[in-house]
């Protein structure tokens, strides 16, 4: 395959043939994908559903985004929300932010506290306020009884240390898992759930350890996501991402794990429904 032109980079990947069984995009950002109103959300999720991605979890990264994700989850029954303050914004984490998140997370369509954690790649927020905010979100997840959705960038050891010090919630999800096989084994042994994005399909040398991790994680502790509009899967890396593109990631992971697409899709959906307790949302 030849190089991707600048024009191609602005073109979304083609909408693929539907998966043989539906899956859930466990982490996306519908607002960052351009959705503003209910009709926008419906169009994005319609495209996803046509590709076999029947439901999505849209995730906040600041307070206004958190309010919007809760609204979006109320506009379309195929959409669920997760709310938190992203670690790169942690130095602005005051009483207003805490009170607002503590209220929003009680909405029945909010299925996780996230994304929270540590990001040592960017320097928008020093480590100390990030760690303080992370500890607060851990406590919130335990108090409310919902999964903790972790953002971990260049911070593996501090993430595990703080989880151990604070006592991890019953369910912990590593969004866009970025570790190697050894780190994956440590997380799996701790009972954590690992969610794989388009990065697990990349073919560069830096992705080798991640692909080894994706091959070994038990499917009972595995989710799939887009993190759209970022991290578009191979072979469309660099193009705009949307929830429908998780289709490509599922197909790639099935090949990597030497299983059928249908079998992997069914198993991933079962794990996602259990992790986020989606049956309770539907019943509510």
What can you see in these coordinates?
One of its GO terms (cellular component) is cytosol. An eight-stranded parallel β-sheet has the order 1-2-3-4-5-6-7-8. The protein has helices at residues 6-9, 38-50, 63-75, 95-104, 127-144, 156-166, 181-189, 208-216, 246-257, 261-276, 278-283, and strands spanning 23-28, 53-59, 79-83, 110-119, 148-153, 172-174, 193-196, 222-224. The protein has a single domain (23-283), classed as TIM Barrel. The protein is an alpha/beta fold. Helix 9 packs across helix 10. Helix content is 43%, strand content 15%. The chain contains eleven helices and eight strands.
Mind sketching the topology for me?
Layout: H1 6-9, E1 23-28, H2 38-50, E2 53-59, H3 63-75, E3 79-83, H4 95-104, E4 110-119, H5 127-144, E5 148-153, H6 156-166, E6 172-174, H7 181-189, E7 193-196, H8 208-216, E8 222-224, H9 246-257, H10 261-276, H11 278-283
Helix pairs in contact: 3-4, 7-8, 9-10
Task: Kindly list the characteristics that best describe this protein.
284 residues; disordered N terminus; TIM Barrel; alpha/beta; eight-stranded parallel β-sheet
CATH topology: TIM Barrel
CATH level-two architecture: Alpha-Beta Barrel
Helix content: 40-55%
Tally the structural domains: 1
Task: Report the structural category.
Answer: alpha/beta
In brief, what are we looking at here?
With about 280 residues, this protein is α/β, with parallel strands linked by helices. It is about 45% helix and about 15% strand. The model is unreliable at about 1-5 (pLDDT under 50).
């Amino acid at each position: 395959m030849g190089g991707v032109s600048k024009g191609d980079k602005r073109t979304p990947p083609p909408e693929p043939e539907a998966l043989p069984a539906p899956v859930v995009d466990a982490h996306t950002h519908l607002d960052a994908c351009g959705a503003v109103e209910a009709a926008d959300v419906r169009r994005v999720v319609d495209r996803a559903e046509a590709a076999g991605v029947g439901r999505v979890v849209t995730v906040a990264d600041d307070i206004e985004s958190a309010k919007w994700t809760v609204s979006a989850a109320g506009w379309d029954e195929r959409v669920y929300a997760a709310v938190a303050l992203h670690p790169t914004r942690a130095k602005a984490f005051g009483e207003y932010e805490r009170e607002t998140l503590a209220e929003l997370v009680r909405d029945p369509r909010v299925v996780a506290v996230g994304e929270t954690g540590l990001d040592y790649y960017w320097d928008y927020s020093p480590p100390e306020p990030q760690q303080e905010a992370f500890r607060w979100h851990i406590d919130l997840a335990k108090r409310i009884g919902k999964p903790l959705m972790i953002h971990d960038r260049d911070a593996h050891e501090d993430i595990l240390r703080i989880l151990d010090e604070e006592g991890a919630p019953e369910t912990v999800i590593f969004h866009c898992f970025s570790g190697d096989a050894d780190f994956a084994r440590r997380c799996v042994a701790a009972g954590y759930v690992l969610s794989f994005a388009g990065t697990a399909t990349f073919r560069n040398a830096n992705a080798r350890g991640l692909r080894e991790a994706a091959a070994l994680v038990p499917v009972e502790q595995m989710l799939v996501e887009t993190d759209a509009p970022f991290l578009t899967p191979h072979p469309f890396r660099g193009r705009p991402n949307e929830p429908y593109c998780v289709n490509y990631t599922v197909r790639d992971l099935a090949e990597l794990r030497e299983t059928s697409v249908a079998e992997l899709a069914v198993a991933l959906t079962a794990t996602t429904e259990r992790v986020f307790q989606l049956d309770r949302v539907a019943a509510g």
